[in-house]
Amino acid sequence: MSDTVYLKGLTWDHPRAWQGLFAETDRLNKSQSDVFLSWDKHSLRGFESTPIAETAARYDLIILDHPFAGDAAQDGSLMNLQDHADILNFSTLTKDYAGPSFESYDYGGGHWALPIDAACQTAALRADLMDGPIPRSFDDVISFGIAGGLGLSMANPHAFMNFMTIAGRHGADLNGTGDRLLPEDIALRSLDILRKIARQIPHEAFDWSSIDLLDAMASENHVSYCPMVFCFNSYAQAVATDKHVLQFSPLPGVIAEQHPGGSVAGGAGLAISACTPNPGEALKVLKHLVSQDAQVRMALDGGQPAHSAVWKTNAPNTINNEFFNECRPDMETASLRPRHAGYMKLQNGAGALLRDDAMKQNAPSLNVILQLEEMFQSSKALTQRPAERINGNH
Length: 394
Known about the structure:
Layout: E1 5-12, H1 15-31, E2 35-42, H2 44-49, H3 52-56, E3 61-64, H4 69-75, H5 85-88, H6 90-93, E4 106-107, E5 110-111, E6 114-117, E7 121-125, H7 138-146, H8 158-169, H9 184-198, H10 210-219, E8 225-230, E9 247-249, E10 268-272, H11 279-289, H12 292-300, H13 308-311, H14 323-332, H15 343-360, H16 365-381
Parallel strand pairs: 1-2, 1-3
Antiparallel strand pairs: 3-10, 4-5, 6-10, 7-8, 7-9
Helix pairs in contact: 1-12, 8-9, 8-15, 15-16
């Protein structure tokens, strides 16, 4: 019998990220002895901002956000999975995952991860606290907020994600491949809506991540509706006796009858470090974890996988309170963020700027939009810097 190969992975610290994953990893480890996989966890903030080169130097497998694809393409920190397309059956994978999940990791001539988790921004609510209809337009949201109960996650970078989703609902292309981040007229309208909503949220919301917001909604009674937040099926599960179950619903639109489209895509991909000493075994594990059977099991164990078998009509919803059914329209039409090398500088800077603006609301709107555009242009300039290859030890 050959010696066991030990692989180390990194995910982020929330049940959505590790609950189904750990259960499937345990099954995999028990089913064979060739490979043993273990996981570390880091915070949501670490997931959103830690440079990929830093984690790739320490781990064999990494669960990451798709905006890191440009950095991976430039610095060589991740294995290019396109080089292993035959082993991974790429020809059958392109339509196997919800929304833009598969394409989100395809950038700069390479494919840097495969989808293991899918999400986008949707609305969230406490049905037991809602006295009237669910808001269907941004005007409805603002009217709802007058009576209280409105919430939003506005910590960095979520203020920027909210702004981008509002722009996406106005029809803007969010992927950052044009000359500008957003058309100026849409950017101004989106800022105006974000400001109006921000006037009606609790002060503590300016320090809330999406997880903080959902935790507050599930454990307290002062926020009954949030118009846009990254969807987490953990909060739609009736498994915690001390928590209220949340319902997720379609995003509000510019008008109440608006079709889905423009939600900022989230989710996570599973990547392999370019410096893993065991690339063959890492590919074997990756192929297993993104397979249909594994991802369906992960959903039943409380995960939020990306495979379309989980997101199709009446897929595993028994413990998820119809979560996948409710979120599917926004997920299938979700928009990709920019992915160029240097984008993370824009995301962090724009998040801080928009959070500060939403709190103070004392700067001319055009000045804020011009600052955002300057940040965008500055971040794109970083794409031109010389690639810095990484080396690491496990």
